Amino acid sequence: MIGPSMSPEIITILALVAMFVVATVLPVNMGALAFVAAFLVGTLAVGMDADGILGAFPGGLFLTLVGITYLFAIAQNNGTVDLLVRGAVRLVGGRVAAIPWIMFAITALLTAMGALSPAAVAIIAPIALGFAARYGINPLLMGMMVVHGAQGGGFSPISVYGVTVNGIVGGTDLESSPATLFLATLLFNLGISVLLFIALGGRSLLGKRADDREKVKVGEHEENAERLAVRGHGSSAYSADQPGSEEPPRGFRFDQAATIVGLLALGVLALGFDLDVGFVSISIAVLLALLSPKAQKGAVNKISWSTVLLLGGVLTFVGVMEEAGTIEYVGDAVAGLGIPLLVALLLCYIGAVVSAFASSTAILGVTIPLAVPFLLAGDIGAVGMIAALSVASTVVDVSPFSTNGALVLANAKDVDPDRFYKQMLAYSGLVVLLGPLLAWGVLVVPNWL
User: Fold this and answer.
1) Alpha-carbon span 242 to 345, nearest angstrom
2) Which of 153, 277, 439, 449 is in Cβ range 3.0-4.6 Å of 391 for a Cys bridge?
3) CB neighbourhood size of 330 (10 A)
4) Which residues cross the membrane (predicted)?
């Protein structure tokens, strides 16, 4: 029972735990629970008004999820996604096992060149998960390869994360090594991806190739295109020799050409000119809908509204937690322990747990300054600790409550949404549990950096 003297920080923590328990036991969207908790806790315990609570609503993430899923729903309807799938598989010579690694490499390259991690994942995840659905690749494997690729390239000296961390460290007397930070985070995510590939069926893909002559189901209709279907995985095949079979027209259509131009424009404008990916994607989607109204039929219904509700509610509640001072409260309690290695481990866990729900960039801006005082004492290597904090605070972006994880969840194809959500939740829980410990054990304890 909550007593009248219980602090707002403790109340928010208890409310967060209660939400997880209820959403796990009952089939209630956690986002809806979180909105209720944000209202009750924010009003009764934190002293916030409705405007203050709604000020924490992640409007940018809402627009990104809606815009991206709307755009790729149109691309799926008009067959453009299938064209991209065929072209990308040809690039790897039909080697199915290479596809997840191609997605990892492309996403890592984009973030290493300075792209925001969510922007890169927003562009690559729908295509990658299209591969997974069509070629019998575990969607969890494919989605997590994209996210780990984004985090692997995310700490280059010209990336957003890299600039943030190096800027903070550069303002102190701590030793700094941007190249070491980049390589440490890249190799850590690469190592996790290797384990994922082995654990989630990657070895079964070795030796499998694609057949570009099999006729299979494409999107919401059947199309006799030169589809690349995986041998041994089966497909929704039909035969032109079967009675009643009808071949849709072949060829490269105007709406597909316009969609490809739109996707390229999304990449150029969002990554090259740093324009908001949500506004850009929904603008392109609306333009495509105007150019080809039939192609966008039903596309709005394919927007992942349950995911939008989930993320909107949870992140609004996180905003209430920040207003209550919960994050600062926990950080101060940990830093006061006075045992350097233990403080380092707990800071890694704080960064991981909070970042699983909130902005990784913001969390880096909180946890690294908290680590500076005891790093200046010289008991722990500063470069290794900074790298460990960076890994711990970003590797958990596989969480379905983070922007990257939400994009994977929203774009998964041919899966049971509830089951896939629970798989992502289980994996992200494992990452939150073991990721900080591994980062601490590899990068901090040996004191070699």
Assistant:
1) 64
2) 439
3) 18
4) 12-41, 53-75, 96-113, 119-137, 181-200, 258-291, 303-321, 333-358, 370-392, 424-445
Query: Which two tokens mark 162?
Result: 């890299």
- Residue 165 has, within 13 A of its CA and on its CB side, a CA count of 37
Tokens 């057949």 sit on residue: 211
Tokens of 24: 């796990």
* CA atoms within 13 A of residue 81's CA, in its CB half-sphere: 28
**Three-state SS annotation for 351-386:** HHHHHCCCCHHHHHHHHHHHHHHHHCCCCCCHHHHH
* CA pair distance 144, 327, nearest whole angstrom: 27
110: helix, coil or strand?
A: helix
Considering only CA atoms, give the Rg of the chain: 23
Q: Which phi and psi (to 5°) does residue 210 adopt?
A: -100, 150
**Predicted model pTM:** 0.69
Q: What is the DSSP string of 193-259?
A: HHHHHHHTTHHHHTT-BEEEEEEEEETTEEEEEEEEEETTT------TTSTT--PPPPS--HHHHHH
Taking the chain (449 residues) in runs of 10, the rounded mean pLDDT of each run is: 70 88 82 93 92 89 84 82 70 84 88 78 87 88 95 86 83 84 95 94 83 40 35 31 38 83 86 82 92 79 80 86 80 71 88 77 73 76 92 90 87 87 92 94 85
Collapsing DSSP to helix, strand or coil, 95 comes out as strand
Close Cβ partners of 151 (under 8 Å, ≥ 6 residues apart): 111, 117, 185, 189, 394, 395, 397
Contacts by residues 47-53 (CB-CB < 8 Å, ≥ 24 positions apart): 48/320, 48/323, 52/323, 53/316, 53/319, 53/320
CA distance 152 to 190: 7
